[in-house]
Hints:
The complex is a heterotrimer of chains A (99), B (304) and C (631).
Chain A: H1 4-23, H2 27-52, H3 56-86
Chain B: H1 4-11, H2 17-39, H3 43-63, H4 67-92, H5 107-128, H6 138-143, H7 147-155, H8 160-181, H9 192-202, E1 225-226, E2 232-233, H10 239-244, H11 251-276, H12 283-303
Antiparallel strand pairs in B: 1-2
Helix pairs in contact in B: 2-3, 3-4
Chain C: H1 4-21, H2 30-54, E1 62-72, E2 75-83, H3 85-108, H4 115-134, H5 138-156, H6 163-194, H7 199-204, H8 211-229, H9 236-240, H10 246-255, H11 258-267, H12 269-273, H13 276-299, H14 303-323, H15 329-356, H16 374-388, H17 394-408, H18 411-440, H19 462-483, H20 487-496, H21 507-530, H22 543-549, H23 554-602, H24 607-630
Antiparallel strand pairs in C: 1-2
Amino acid sequence: MNPVNYLYLAALLFTIGAAGVLIRRNAIVVFMCIELMLNACNLTLVAFSRMHGNLDGQIIAFFVMVVAAAEVVVGLAIIVSLFRSRHSASVDDASLMKL
Amino acid sequence: MTGLSGLNTLAATTTSTGEAVQFWVLGTVAVIGALCTILMRRAVHSALCLAGTMIILAVFYLANGAYFLGVVQIVVYTGAIMMLFLFVVMLVGVTAADSLKETLKGQRWLAALCGLGFGVLLIAGIGHASLSTFNGLGAANTAHGGNVEGLAALLFTKYVFAFEITGALLITAAVGAMVLTHKERTERSLTQREMAERRVREGKQLPPLPAPGVYARHNAVDIPGLLPDGTPSELTVISTLRERGQIRDVSAKALSDLKALEQRSEDRLGRHGSTSSTGPATGTTTGSTGDRADRDRDEEEATR
Amino acid sequence: MENLIALLIAAPLLGAVVLLCGGRRLDRTGHWLGTALAGASFLIGVVLFAGMLGESADERTLHQRLFSWIPVEGFQADIAFQLDQLSMTFVLLITGVGTLIHIYSIGYMEHDERRRRFFGYLNLFLSAMLLLVLADNYLLLYFGWEGVGLASYLLIGFWQHKPSAATAAKKAFLVNRVGDIGLSIAIMLMFTTFGTFAFGPVLGSVGETGEGTLTAIGLMLLLAACGKSAQVPLQSWLGDAMEGPTPVSALIHAATMVTAGVYLIVRSGAIFNAAPDAQLVVVVVGAVTLLFGAVVGCAKDDIKKALAGSTMSQIGYMILAAGLGPIGYVFAIMHLVTHGFFKAGLFLGAGSVMHGMNDEVDMRKYGGLRKHMPITFVTFGLGYLAIIGFPGLSGFFSKDKIIESAFAKGGAEGWILGAVTLLGAAITAFYMTRVMLMTFFGEKRWQPDAEGHEPHPHESPRSMTIPMIVLAFGSVFAGGFFGIGDRFLNWLEPVTGYDHGHAPISAATVTTATVVVLLIGVGVAWLMYGRRPVPVLAPRGSLLTRAARRDLYQDDINHAVLVRGGEHLTRSLVYVDHTLVDGVVNGTAASVGGLSGRLRKMQNGYARSYAVSMFGGTAVLIAATLLMRAV
Lengths: 99, 304, 631
């Protein structure tokens, strides 16, 4: 097997995650899909790290994880406060930008 | 896994058969998990599927020689972040199922089109790129004595600024989350007397709100109390559950249970009566054990 | 001596300004002032003429430069005059005949309360015409040309209370405008070709210019001449111009206006000489108009309109002669002068008849007037004999020369033109005899009008008869004076040049033929109108007669081609404007609006929709990147 297959798998996961962002209305699930996309990116970074033979890719993946953790913390806080004020976790309900 | 043969396979353009098998099996599972994440109606199921996918990804990290990342993936992602998700899911309502019916016109088609196009393009791009040679991580991992040491050497030298900034980011995120979720009380809380006076002023509900639960049967907070005619009163359930729609209506069950109970007591009385008048049927002996079991359970419930 | 040239124009111009601005206090004396100034102009002309005769033939041209009109670098236009033999001829004709018409108008317009204004317009007409013939460059000529158009408009529509007169004035003005466009284009072409407007440089440098340009200039000049001289296809205004007072008709037809076209062509002779194609067109226009006018003249019962047809025909002779080149220039001008005499005489006679007949113009209601108006009869009769070319009178000499010149053109062209001119002469004899017989001979046919006033034909006052007598003298003797001994030829030859041409038949033969066709024409007319009584109501007539009564459908053709065509053109333009232009504009607006309306819906406020846009954009970016790498 060629290690390039990891990249194909990452692309597939990323696309699935993106499709989930577009399809799901529940903010929490949307968030999970974003995490899925980030993980797919991490997979490519690790695969590329192996390909280039240095650890920089893993470092970047590590940073991505940290940023994802921070993002999740803030994002979930936003979802909780949103739910508190609107009693709904649907992203479609937060459509105040509509004309 | 960290043996010499493993290092060698990491360096080759083709992997060992073991890794290939592992890839195909776990890769399939990962894709199924990702699909389930976006297709499950309940957020809890989605979260669990995602956690599974992440664990598989952790295995792939390990297979690619990123041992530290693999562990961190399991500990931080699957352990911490997914737990955070589950907590929020609990807050928002664990039992609420999402409708998968699309409300935005054309959204699903557009999403499918874009997703398909994007995926095809991405895969075409990867296929187009010249990615034939894999150097492998054997040399890099052994340079400082191991994967973790190698990462540390990079993190505290080359990427030290980014590392520091990441620390600042984490602190900011923590403070931000607190600011967002913490509700500052800006006025004095009402005393019991004041609340009673307000109730009188409003005139809607003078006595205290009725408590939930069906006495002698159910006293869970999500079960509304029954009115004298047997219909449930939503007033008895707290507003959060009311808004989530998480109210268990047991009025019908209570009535049917009541009916069954009466039936059984009739039976028992009838049996007592029948033994005195009509005599036992052939089925009474077989029914007596069941009756006893029923009676035991009824008593049990009555004590609850 | 040359300082007098400006005075020629200034005298009538002064009259016009004083009479038109002077107000009512001049009402009683204004006509005398106008006549006196016209006469003064004539006297100055005579003085200049006498001075010119004193010079040798080559030194007769006088120049006077008043001031620089438009002094722009590379665009010089001067108010400057040039008086040579050609201009001199016109000056004498214009001022002489013009003065006579002024005198006549004193009597004719006696009862018109706007007489002062009428004389002001007459003076304006004279000064504009003098400016036209005296200008030494085309731009100034154009100025005079437009002045003539303005004055003719004012005079034709003088009785503006009559809608027909107002319409006729507008028609004359509009048709003249078409010709004016030709002149202005010709002048622009001249400027771009030669860089100047002055006659000397323009006509002197013709040899260095391409024939195509010259042909274009010539055709544009011809268009201008057609407008002013009422030649086909711009002839339609002339008949309607009879709505003006009769002296105006006399002035327009004899001395001014219609002669301007002939003057323009003869003046620009050098250009036409170098452009044979343009010359051919000139000849064709002249020949067609000659027959056209003659045919129309045959059918009209209105005495003035019959004379108008005759004018058109005679001007056609002149244009034809002018188109012959050096063979004909001199004779065109000679016929113009003699025509000026007898046509003025005829019109004044017609005016005199109308004056005596309560302004009745229908010849069928005349008859036997010779006993009532002897002087008018005699002067009109002499004019009649002159115009038909009765041997010995003016018209004989000048017309005969034109017919000879037409034959002298040579080749088939010469034969055709000769035949046309002979035919024209026969028709002229016919219709003029008809006019004469219907007016002065036969039984009286007039009846009381609707209010019971029976006309009492009477001779006109002396102020009207004297000019008629003077003009009759001119009609009789001018031709002989000019023609015998080639006086006129020698006089004009230095300016216009002369060429004998190649006459295929002798002059005597032509003269004989002319006399024969003349007699035939007169005979036919006598058979039709002299021997039999003339019906008061016009018979239905043949197809040709009916067509000729309607001016050979000139107005119908104009209406069908120009008015209808113009309407269709404007309608289609409006349609194009409404559908295409407005459609593009409104369509753009509507499509922008519609597009915005559609695009607005994309802004639905749903984060997921925006996410789709972002995702699609990313996909497009990837596609573009891959595409660029592939390329």
